[in-house]
Amino acid sequence: MIEELLMAAAGAAAAMAVYTGAAARIVKQYERGVVFRFGRLREDVRTPGFTMIVPVVDRLHKVNMQIVTMPVPAQEGITRDNVTVRVDAVVYFKVVDAAEALIRVEDYKFAVSQMAQTSLRSIIGKSDLDDLLSNREKLNQGLELMLDSPAIGWGVQIDRVEIKDVSLPETMKRSMARQAEADRERRARVINADAELQASKKLAEAAGVMSAQPAALQLRLLQTVMAVSAEKNSTLVLPIPVELLRFLERATPGAGAEETDGAATPPPAPPVYQRGLVDGAGVEPVEDLTGASVEPAPPEE
Question: What is the mean pLDDT of the chain?
Fold first, then answer.
């Protein structure tokens, strides 16, 4: 009798162990357990840790609650300004409702991937090339809104969307390089012109100071000579100021007077000749002998 009881207890223990092994489940910290009993969803979602289900009756589905990083394949499209580009992106999302992610959509990862591709194509067609290259933050927000609206109904939350790369044709790259080079050259010319304007103003101020103090010009000339001679050149170029030439011209004696007298003195008068008579009684002046010749009168007999 005792042996039969021991055998029965051992069999019950073995059956309990088999049942416990079949019913026991372990849910990890980053997972949630969704239980279906005869195909119907149980309201209680199993939290991380040890849990029990009814064997054969219940089915436990574990849903990963971690953030999923999904690359979006490169999509080729035409921008609003008629430029062909290839754009690829990356989507970060996570499951916030494990039951909805299993019931509402067959495969939530595939659904998010397909929706991201179509949304990326739509963004390419609505944007300009400059926006794709320099205004990506705004486009990322637009993509996130387009993906988050339907994903909420699937128990999925879009955490972030980033445009990863924009591929351009080689001809467009060369055109953009020429445009950037031309813009740099324009800015360099504007800077040079501004520098010339500032330098001219400073030179005008310096000229005003030197005109008030003529000795400053000589000092500046000596400084220039010292700067040139410090390089030990074989040829020394010495500029002569115009003011120095004018000073030497004014200091030369007789140069200005001769020029003034020559312009104001009238030409000399012709010479006057005199003729004396035979008897010496008087002298008759003759003013001009250059006129027509006069035949002498014959002597009286």
Answer: 79
